[in-house]
Predict the 3D structure of the following.
Amino acid sequence: MHGYTTREVADLLGLTQRQVRSFARSGLLEAARGPHNEYRFPFQDLVLLRAARALLDAGLPMRRVRHSMESLKSQLPRGRTLSQVRIIAEGDRVVVRDGGTRWQPDSGQMVLDFEVSDLAARVAPLAAGAAEALRDGAPLSADEWFELALELEAVAPDEARKAYERTLELDPSHVDAHVNLGRLLHEEGRAGDAETEYRRALALNAAYATAAFNLGTALEDLGRPAEAMQAYRQALASDPGLADAHFNLSRLYEQAGDRLAALRHLRSYKQLIEAGA
């Protein structure tokens, strides 16, 4: 793991190094130890610590700050670029929203409201510099390039894409790299290239539900709804609890005029959402 040092994190977020180390010891973060036993923090930890600092500045006791960090950590998206989300506080609750969603708190509520993309922009120069140093240093393995790509996604997506491509040059069978590269390409508006990567992932692991789901979204953007429906069904065959696949199928069946199938998938979607609430 490469990540960011205690000093870099403290300077970026306006925390003391002692506070950063204290949170690292709490078990709430994903920080690992570097070659000299120093802490190294991934970008996800910076998101959590950015929220913690805002809550501390608002005068919340440490017990509530830690509880809020636990809640936030459980909500952060997996398999999707973190910089697309917005983090807010609604009373005592920390809530993660999609980046396009705007939220207005009621009068008198304590406000925690920031775009992760703002934090990513501040971290980007550090990440790009670290990536350049790694490229100029000792050769990295495919897995090391993959870990670097994960760290770069939120702060330097172009560098992340290059790192995933390097991963696949070294190991064309790295299924997660195909999926993540496809997602970045899709976010760049290159749905056709994304389709290629998702299909490569499924050729390696036909039961990879995320690859099948992502393929469905790419096919929708390419104007091929029948193939998209097939991809969503494949995703559900591997993971029946994939609520968003039911929702997308419901919408596509509605558009195709099959109202009964649309209602069936919408009902499954609502059941899964309510069960997870």
